[in-house]
Each structure stands twice: as C-alpha cells, then as structure tokens.
# Entry
Amino acid sequence: MDELIEKVNSKDTFLQFVKALKEDKIEEDEKENTSPSSPYGPGANGWENGTISTFLDAIEAYGEDSDLIKEEPNWKSFALLLYAGKFYE
# Structure
C-alpha cells in the first residue's frame, strides 16, 4: 500500500488506491471467515478498524494528529487519510 500512496497525484491514481484498499479489506474478510484472527489484534491483512464507525474515527484522529496532512487539499492527503482508517487507533 505504501508504494501506491507514493504514486497518488491525481484523481485516477487516487481511485486506483481506493480500489486496492477495498480489495485488501475484501481479501482480509475472506481470510477472517476461514481462519479468524485474535479479537485483540489486527486482522489477517492488518486491519484494526473493521467497522465504518471505527474506520471513520481513525481517519478523524489521524487527520488531527498527523503532520503529513496539509491544509491545502490534495489527492495524496486524501489517500493517506483513507489508509489511516485501516490501522490508526
């Protein structure tokens, strides 16, 4: 995912990143259905936030805490926020 974030610089590359993030979550859900991870750690692909509310909470917290998110909006910042929704607590 880190490599994809580095390539985000336009609407198209942002949407490619969103697609990859979505596919990563779908893959994790399939793995978890077959062999569940510990309820106290991340899922098989590293997802800490599996519900929309925890995902959005993580995006909000990362946006407030991170120096990587700039005041001027750009596609890479949007991608970083979505990616943080996966793991940030």
Notes: The chain has a mean pLDDT of 94. The chain has four helices and no strands. The two ends are 18 Å apart (CA to CA). The chain has one domain: 2-87.
